[in-house]
Amino acid sequence: MKxxxxxxxxxxxxxxxxxxxxxxxxxxxxxxxxxINKAVPLHTQCPxxxxxxxxxxxxxxxxxxxxxxxTLAFLDFIGRGNSLSESLKSRVLDxxxxxxxxxxxxxxxxQDND
Length: 114
What we know:
extended
């Protein structure tokens, strides 16, 4: 277990520095959500009241997409029995790191809405 936690910390710190700033490890998810919302405004009309409804991509939705990518890679590994680029251990650690980031985004969301 200690080796797992040590590797998890290493991945979180090294990849974290590549993908986000020291001040906000969730920054990339926020930037991507903002860019998508500016580039592709999502609107629809309510079928019953005919009002326009605007949908926003949130940082948590962006993170969920990345999380699913890693989960699918993990499932693909199980189906094939091997991986072309990363080990099974690496896939599990990535999923764990994204779970931690999701927890942090959820906590931040709760604090913003209190």
